[in-house]
Amino acid sequence: MDMGGMSSSPSASCKISMLWNWYTVDACFLANSWHVRSRGMFAGSVIGVFFLVIAIEAVRRAGREYDRRLVQAAMALQGGGVISTGKADTPPGEMGRVMSSQQIMRFTPSWPQQILRGLVYGSQFTAAFLVMLLGMYYNGYILFAIFIGQTVGYIVFGRDTCGGAELDCSGSCC
Predict the structure, then answer these.
(1) What is the pTM of this model?
(2) Which InterPro entries does the record cross-reference, listed alphabetically (predicted)?
(3) Which parts of the chain register pLDDT below 70?
């Protein structure tokens, strides 16, 4: 059996574990090309994962802001009426009350707007999926970078999701 991969040379094999671990040097993530060969590379990987998770929250916020901008532009074109998202779960009494005081209209994004919304969503989903795969290496440093990064990202970019009962803060225009 060839044990050449057991040395600490640049061609050392990757340490991969599906159990909780604290591997630093010779850890590998996602592909052989992400083979951590020094403590500096590992620190860069942990910091990069931390900022990747924060970036996911930033993209989520950008998507919500874009949706709000689309709805506000549609409201301005229609003279300030209430935009209906077409949700079937609105109680009949509530719908009647809204209809009696304001005009209700339905908003559907144009195809270019929907394509941009899809690209924002797709980039968010792809990055989140990669973060999930990174978490499956069960490396404690990477997991804590994910947990802390998500928390920091939400603190920084999630302030727009809090509102009263009359405010629609879902960020979804459709």
Answers:
(1) 0.75
(2) Cop_transporter
(3) 1-11, 80-104, 164-174
